[in-house]
Amino acid sequence: MFTGEKVRLRAYRKEDLEKALQFINDPEVKRFLAPGIPFPLTESDEEKFISKQSGFNTDAYSFAIETLEGEYIGGCGINSTDWKNSVAVVGIFIGNKDYWGKGYGTDAMRVLLRFIFEQMNINKVKLFVYDFNKRAIRCYEKCGFKVEGVLRQEIYRDGRYHDELAMGILRSEWFGAGNKK
């Protein structure tokens, strides 16, 4: 369990299943997450995701995000790790819209970055975000991410093509910004 100012990152639990399925199938949440056809996930799909989470995995780590009061509100994690080059690819979502735009995602990302840089000894963290996800882009910039590239017209969503931004933060930038070492 890793704690920030507003949230705690913890392992997923079976009791998260119902809310997780509700969050991931919400059309407004889903439009920001995956480039594929926004087809709903089934309860079985979500059960498989939760059951395959393990501390023994060495490349990907998924955390449930909960408020300090214990309410499950979303998820984040390391989608892949390139140990040779010391690069991790991350993702995050806040599924409970009551917590959108209130700093919970920013706090969760900071906790995740602290875990990656202080516990995994990774040199670079990167992510990909659609250009229409302005709230997420602001969150990432607050955490120190910089735009490293633009994948032009990478995703077709809502009747037109959109760019996808590649963003990254280096270990030296994280610690240079006054974060603990």
Automatic annotation (TrEMBL):
Pfam families: Acetyltransf_3. GO terms for molecular function: acyltransferase activity, transferring groups other than amino-acyl groups. Residues 7-172 form the N-acetyltransferase domain. InterPro entries: Acyl_CoA_acyltransferase (IPR016181), GNAT_dom (IPR000182). PANTHER family: GNAT-FAMILY ACETYLTRANSFERASE, SPERMIDINE N(1)-ACETYLTRANSFERASE. This is GCN5-related N-acetyltransferase. It comes from Thermosediminibacter oceani (strain ATCC BAA-1034 / DSM 16646 / JW/IW-1228P). The lineage of its organism: Bacteria, Bacillati, Bacillota, Clostridia, Thermosediminibacterales.
